[in-house]
Amino acid sequence: MDIADIATSEYVAVDVDERLGKVRSLFERDNPKGVVVTDDEYAGIITQKQLVQSHIEDNTKASAMMQSAPKVERTADVRKVARVLVEGGTKVAPVFEAGSLWGIVTEDAILTAVLENLDALTVADIYTDDVVTVTENTNVGQAINLLREHGISRLPVLDGSGLLTGMVTRHDIVDIVVRDMDKATRGERAGDIERVLDLPVYDEMNSPVATTTLTESVREAVRRMLDNDYAGLVVTPDDDDSVVEGIITKTDVLRALTFTEEEHMDVQITNIKLLDTISRDDIRQRTERVADKYQKMQVQHCHVRFHEHKEKLRGTPLIRCQIRLRTNKGQAAGSGEGYGADSAFGVALDKLERNVLELKDVQADEEYRGQLLRKLGEL
User: Fold this and answer.
1) Which residues, including other chains, have CB under 8 Å from residue 216's CB and lie 6 or more apart?
2) What pLDDT does 379 receive?
3) pTM, rounded to two decimals
4) Which CATH number, 3.90.1150.10, 1.10.1200.120, 3.30.160.100, 1.10.287.3510, labels domain 259-376?
């Protein structure tokens, strides 16, 4: 299936000289997946995620914030486009035909097109079990930092007993922070920045929370997301919707569309532009060497995410790397930081190897067991 009938020529566009204040108002009013920036022809794109992560003033031109989203051809295969969106960390990509901008393709359009084919999967097949949560007393400023650090769009809110009571999303942050910070910078309400950042998320969270279960089909879960404009659902036990077992997002579903039947491990990389002295094939081979040490673990998919911090050492940025393996024994993850993608990946891979041992019934081959234990200092 290609995207010829999925892409649309209807999209929101602004000129490179448009003020960011206008762009913010477009997101608040129309809630688009992204805004295309043009300068007679395609120049870039601005996403809601960028606005949350930025403190650029409203009178700044759109060109200062736009980024180059991955381009796709109107006849591109839907699986390839799904990978492009996931690895580009975006929900929209510009679509070109004969070298010219024709329109856009969105995450929702792809999911709608493949909806009926998702009945073969259950939520348990693709959900994420490592969930970042906050408590009702966590303030908005802390929530913003968590969204940035982990590159996520939502945070389940727990009460003092650890039970699910609400959800705070990136869109909520845009509504309550960007709007009020804009007023504060114009001097209309002095002190609003500090006041808003100190608010507990309890005051702004959405409740009740939309949930799903491990046994529900992905088709039904996605249908509910599309019908209600949810970006994700909290995964809970069948008999208790207040206990958080995981989360499933539209991005998780897109990622599942890219799974392959190839002999070697399928590796998906988010923020692939941050790769420096390491390649996709290097990442695949080094991760495979870890997975191959274990007789009973079959890796079904590997997702590697890189995030760049502002800190640098002799020009090399501090990178955070997160590795997640989906296996027949469950999920295993590792994360770490280093200067440059290669260094960060190495730290994360070491952490992954430690965490793999915690998977139930996974045992190392005898040849590797002694090496691993000596490496961990457990002999």
Assistant:
1) 122, 123
2) 31
3) 0.68
4) 3.30.160.100
